[in-house]
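Structure first, sequence second, as always.
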């Protein structure tokens, strides 16, 4: 018979240590994911808390501040676009859409300047680069091409803003922002309808643009409240009391082949 190897304390403790080490590693592997995901930093709630400041009207988040800035930016280019549509539009529906843009953003511009002043937020005084490009495109277009570009560019821009308004209105804790979101929702929805009533909106192209997210954010999140100067109105006129007006009759069949 082959002699049995000697059994000593070192062999026993070595084997036991390996087993304990293996069990410990397994337990750590099971516990670590629970700990890391339950206590990790950088979550949405952490970001919300870190970027929210207190005001007398309720907490003001970074999204709230960006929304206020976007309302101002929208008026800075859509007011001129509306004025241009009244001059260059070739159909009554396009001219009416331009009038809605003017009246709606005169109303919103006064509202957003009032809100920003109470919250101590600075507002921009000129459109951003993307908005200037849109205005350049509309300025160069003529005839039916202008009508079509006007309806589709403005409809795309309003669709992007509409989703931001809904997000802010659903989650804001600030009473001033909540009221501004209500006004913006009414105005933007009216503009969406009146642009669609021109008959020129290409809904297939619009859906693809919205899905692709081809339009970049209008601005970065502005700084927390501080001392801010009144930026002045986009257009020095008295805004209407309400942004509600009747829709124009929809265009039945806009021309598609011959530019005027």
């Amino acid at each position: 018979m082959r002699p049995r190897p000697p059994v000593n304390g070192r062999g026993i403790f070595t084997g036991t240590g390996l087993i304990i080490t293996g069990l410990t590693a397994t337990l750590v592997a099971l516990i670590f994911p629970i700990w890391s995901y339950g206590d990790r930093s950088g979550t949405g709630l952490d970001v919300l808390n870190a970027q929210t400041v207190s005001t007398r009207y309720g907490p003001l988040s970074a999204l709230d501040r960006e929304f206020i800035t976007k309302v101002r930016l929208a008026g800075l280019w859509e007011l001129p676009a509306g004025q241009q549509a009244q001059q260059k539009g070739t159909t009554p529906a396009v001219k009416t859409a331009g009038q809605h843009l003017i009246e709606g953003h005169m109303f919103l511009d006064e509202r957003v300047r009032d809100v920003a002043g109470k919250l101590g937020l600075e507002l921009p005084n000129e459109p951003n680069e993307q908005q200037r490009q849109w205005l350049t495109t509309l300025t160069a277009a003529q005839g039916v091409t202008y009508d079509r570009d006007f309806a589709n560019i403005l409809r795309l821009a309003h669709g992007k803003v509409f989703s931001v308004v809904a997000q802010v209105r659903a989650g804001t804790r600030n009473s001033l922002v909540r009221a501004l979101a209500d006004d913006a929702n009414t105005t933007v929805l009216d503009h969406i309808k009146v642009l669609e009533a021109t008959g020129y909106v290409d809904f297939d192209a619009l859906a693809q643009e919205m899905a692709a997210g081809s339009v970049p954010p209008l601005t970065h999140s502005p700084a927390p409240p501080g001392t801010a100067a009144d930026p002045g109105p986009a257009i020095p006129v008295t805004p209407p009391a309400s942004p509600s007006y009747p829709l124009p009759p929809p265009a039945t069949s806009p021309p598609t082949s011959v530019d005027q």
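Margin note: Residues 30-41, 214-220, 235-260 have pLDDT under 50 and may be disordered.
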